[in-house]
Amino acid sequence: MPTVGVIGVGYIGKRFLDRLADTDYDTVAYDVDASQVEAAQERGAAAAESPADATRRSEFVVLALPGTPEVEAVMEAEDGVLGALSAGQTVVDVTTTHPDTSRECEQWCEDRGVAFVEAPITRAAPRDGAHMMVGGTEAAYGSARDLIESLSDDHLHVGAVGRATILKLALQMRYAGRTALDAEIVEFTRDNGVDPAHLRDFFGMDVSERLLDREFEQGIEGLGGLAIWDKDLGYARDVARETGTALPINAAVHEAYKATVRRAGSDEAHAATLLRYWELLNDAGERAFQPAEDEG
Questions:
Q1: Which one of 29, 85, 105, 173 is separated from 279 by 20 to 30 angstroms, measured CA to CA?
Q2: Rounded to 5 degrees, what angle do the CA atoms 172, 175, 178 make?
Q3: Which of 228, 269, 270 lies closest to 95, judged by CA?
Q4: Is the pTM of this model over 0.90?
């Protein structure tokens, strides 16, 4: 049976192991956090000593990492992926990175006779399930397709490497922008004496409960939505600068995320923490953060 090496077994990586447990794939796992490797072993994966070890023991290598710096480090390290690759293997990077990172990884892999696809994933789309956006040549996509179908509920081959990441960044821009707009609306109503819960209860708007209740703790392990969207909006702005694409709204939203990340507490990782940015602008630090009483 083919073996899948999963490098990075945090929140996403462990979900992959759960899905692969019901397939014909064997799994081997590596993470810098030994406790995550132990959790992976509980899911049936063998433990690898390094990214290179995981790579040598696998036909498919899946990278599930936080971002560009981690992907570059795992690929290029002395005990990393590149030095252990052999012709005929396939690398699937599900990390959301800068598109140039994916293009560089593709070139590194091609030089070694290895197929590479980028396959960033989202579970936040209106459609239920985990959806992958895939970028790569037809040949590379063909070699990875069966595995991708096991890792996701649906997927879309967008085109060449880089394009899937652009699509994922567009999704992140929408998710982050909508949260920013809702945070501003919630603070506007509350700062002017109106209970923002009316937006939900009377109009049926799907304003986040976390914004209404000021619940900023991260609900899942990992970076958290606040840091992830700050990272990904930054990648989008980098791309826009390089291509000349105008992103004035994204720029304003990103500045709000940047400012909030700098001020958020260690237990405030959810994207709803962005509400604190508008509270700061309105000198709301001393306010009793309960729904305001409506003025008759």
A1: 173
A2: 140
A3: 228
A4: yes
Q: Using DSSP, state whether 47 is helix, strand or coil.
A: strand
DSSP per-residue codes, 244-281 = T---HHHHHHHHHHHHHHHH--TT--SGGGGHHHHHHH
User: What would the two tokens of residue 227 be?
Assistant: 């840091």
| pLDDT tens column, 201-211 | 999 999 999 99
Q: What is the DSSP letter of 249?
A: H
More confident residue, 40 or 123: 40
Tokens of 176: 């982050």
136-172 pLDDT, tens digit per residue, is 999 999 999 999 999 999 999 999 999 999 999 999 9
Helix-helix angle 138-151:11-20, to 10 degrees: 90
Rounded to a whole number of angstroms, the CA Rg of the chain reads: 21
Report whether 3 contacts 58 (CB < 8 A).
yes
